[in-house]
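Example (one chain per record):
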Amino acid sequence: MEPTQAHHEKIAKLTFAAVYPAYLTKVEKKGRTKEELDQVITWLTGFDPQQQQNLIKEKVTFETFFQRATLHPNASLITGMICGYRVEEIDNPLTRQVRYLDKLVDELAKGKKMGKILRTNAS
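Predicted structure:
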């Protein structure tokens, strides 16, 4: 499946504030915590929990969110299927970054150990 330009534009315009509650609901339903979700987001983006809350209040789009983020050097180790797409094959950098975040949240909800989610075993 190949994402379209319209798909990329739709993702760019989504706000972090609109998606964060869905992420939180997803992980809490599976017994994980807000703190773990925030830890995963911090690992990927460099935004601490307070910065995340500020970005939610500011209602930044994913485009702005990832422009301001400092992506973790091991982010490229995030691979696999999410939302019908193979993350590592997505050409659009912003869409790939958003899918990185989706994939991490999915792994957290599926009960993976934090070390595996945060790719701490990779060099």
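Caption: Residues 93-109 form the longest helix (17 residues).
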